[in-house]
Write a structure and sequence with these properties.
By secondary structure, the protein is mainly alpha-helical. The protein has nine helices and two strands, in the order αβαααααβααα. It has one domain.
Length: about 210
């Protein structure tokens, strides 16, 4: 084989190894790295939004309530100053509201033992520097809860909570896809996502609006 042919063959081999390496690294970065970056946790109570909303006709704000001054109380607990406390409906550890075995487990573990708090994992928890007034978005602008939280009303059990090992924040904040592409509006809750929504809704993107 002539020197020219040997050089040409060597060049093709080099490109082949480069492409193989590139594909392998791309697969590692695209699929494997996100898998090892997040730990998976389950909620302490297998709460069915679907059962409560479709089965009883409850509204989101009955459990995720607003105080008299308009501030948002967040996730419900056993006892609280709002009507969204679990004990409003589940105050008797011997009485069930339905046939779901998960309710009996809840009554035995929380109601019968007198626990006052459920250590919920918050999918949408933002950094301390972020100010998000639910009353402005939900009451004043009448934005549906599903716009940010997805179709939770249709879920029979909570989604798996994925926590970033480095930042400690939920994957629901950073986004499900490493590319940043969103299939649904609730796929990510980063600053850019809020800014895009503000532009759609005619809201301000001034720094002081969201950062106090």
């Amino acid at each position: 084989m002539s020197e020219a042919k040997q050089a040409n063959a060597g060049g093709k081999g080099g490109w082949l190894f480069f492409l193989i390496g590139f594909v392998v690294l791309l697969a590692l970065g695209w699929y494997v790295f996100p898998m090892i970056l997040y730990s998976k946790k389950v909620q302490p109570v297998s709460f069915s939004h679907k059962l409560h909303i479709e089965g009883t006709g409850m509204e989101c704000t009955e459990c995720h309530a607003f105080r008299a001054d308009g501030t948002f109380m967040g996730v419900p607990n056993m006892t609280s100053e709002s009507d969204g406390a679990c004990l409003v409906c589940h105050d008797d550890p011997e009485s069930t509201q339905g046939e779901d075995p998960r309710e009996k487990e809840f009554l035995a573990e929380y109601v019968a033992t007198g626990k006052e708090r459920i250590d919920w994992l918050i999918y949408s928890k933002q950094p301390p520097c972020v100010f998000f007034p639910h009353s402005v978005h939900v009451i004043m602008k009448e934005i549906e809860c599903s716009r940010c939280h997805g179709e939770m009303a249709e879920r029979d059990e909570p989604p798996v909570y994925q926590q970033n090992y480095i930042t400690g924040y939920s994957r629901d904040i950073w986004g499900r896809r490493i590319s940043g592409h969103k299939k649904y509006p609730w796929d990510a809750m980063k600053m850019g996502d809020c800014g895009d929504c503000h532009e759609e809704q005619g809201g301000s993107n001034a720094c002081f609006v969201c950062h106090k």
